[in-house]
Structure to design on (200 residues):
């Protein structure tokens, strides 16, 4: 008998998110550094491709006010459910998600209406060059949200509307997105890199 794949769930209270909250390394992690969170500086952030909400939750746990934008109705509903459960949990989880504002819509339309310091863009990544199976959860997300063919258009809108910086989260070895100006600098992780575009 074939085991049924577990339904996708956004969970801020248990699993990898809670583990990262306890043992993650604070503002010294690659993502907070890329987004400009440092001693005495906490920019306002938009996560323009919210997905499972994990990056937004990490940034909110470090004090940032984070607006999450998700255009898939199904993904938006999963995020709303995860936020509700974190609020019900109380304590630190409630305090963190109270700094998170969830919007439904296309970030290309919504970004021009928001005044924020930093914008994070984490589009669905291009297919891997090796044959390693993408993690189950990410496969499930891809099935819901598709392939983000308009990532270059979203980057262009973000570069016009962020006050301080735009950060593209991208596979470490992937080619840059075509039609976008070169980034100001990069923060390299083992499998992921953060291309940082400084503005102003």
């Amino acid at each position: 008998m074939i085991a049924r794949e577990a339904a996708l769930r956004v969970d801020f209270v248990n699993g990898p998110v809670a583990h990262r909250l306890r043992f993650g390394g604070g503002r010294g992690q690659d993502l907070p550094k890329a987004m400009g969170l440092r001693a005495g500086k906490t920019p306002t952030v938009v996560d323009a491709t919210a997905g499972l909400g994990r990056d937004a939750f990490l940034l909110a746990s470090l004090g940032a006010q984070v607006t999450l934008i998700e255009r898939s109705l199904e993904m938006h509903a999963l995020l709303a459910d995860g936020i509700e459960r974190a609020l019900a949990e109380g304590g630190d989880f409630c305090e963190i998600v109270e700094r998170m504002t969830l919007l439904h819509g296309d970030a290309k339309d919504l970004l021009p209406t928001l005044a924020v310091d930093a914008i994070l863009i984490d589009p669905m990544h291009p297919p891997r060059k090796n044959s390693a199976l993408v993690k189950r959860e990410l496969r499930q997300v891809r099935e819901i949200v598709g392939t983000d063919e308009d990532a270059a258009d979203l980057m262009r809108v973000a570069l016009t509307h962020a006050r301080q910086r735009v950060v593209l989260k991208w596979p470490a070895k992937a080619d840059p997105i075509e039609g976008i100006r070169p980034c100001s600098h990069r923060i390299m992780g083992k499998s992921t890199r953060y291309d940082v575009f400084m503005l102003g």
